[in-house]
Amino acid sequence: MKTYSEEFKASIIVKLLPPHDARVPALAREYGIPRDTLYSWRRQAGGQGALPATPCASVGVLSGAEKFAVVVETATLNELDLGAYCRRKGLFAEQIAAWRTSCQRANDPQPRAGDRAEQRAEREQIKQLSQELLRKDKALAEAAALLLLQKKVQGLWAESADARSPSRGASK
Predict the structure, then answer these.
(1) How much is the average pLDDT of 96-108?
(2) What is the pTM of this model?
(3) CATH number of the domain that 8 lies in?
(4) Residue of 18, 33, 122, 141 with fewest CB within 10 Å of its CB?
């Protein structure tokens, strides 16, 4: 079985999906790839709901300042304008949304080492208390079961004692 690089596979998938919509038999002849493989790649790419990243996209080389500039430029765009902007720049709307989230979280206060140690100690205490609670619940259930059994045994002994003893007044 022949294996294909991810870049090669991505370039073929881009040709299979819109807007190119190349025919599978033609690509199979051109590249010498089995048709079943191409159909499988197309089905997998369609199931993921997103086009694979093309090797020609320069998204990976954007600096933090450039990403921030893109977020600022697209902040007021509606969905249609954002789509046109993404096509023009070779970006995906999901990438811009992720960058926007990163920008929003950039000024969130970072937890200090003391806070993290406090949280760790609290989690450990909660874990210990939960274990102790489970242990006590089991002990309580066992005690309740023993009390119930004790009452049943006393009830059985009382019945057998009544059955063995002569009835009052019947022997006279």
Answers:
(1) 87
(2) 0.35
(3) 1.10.10
(4) 18
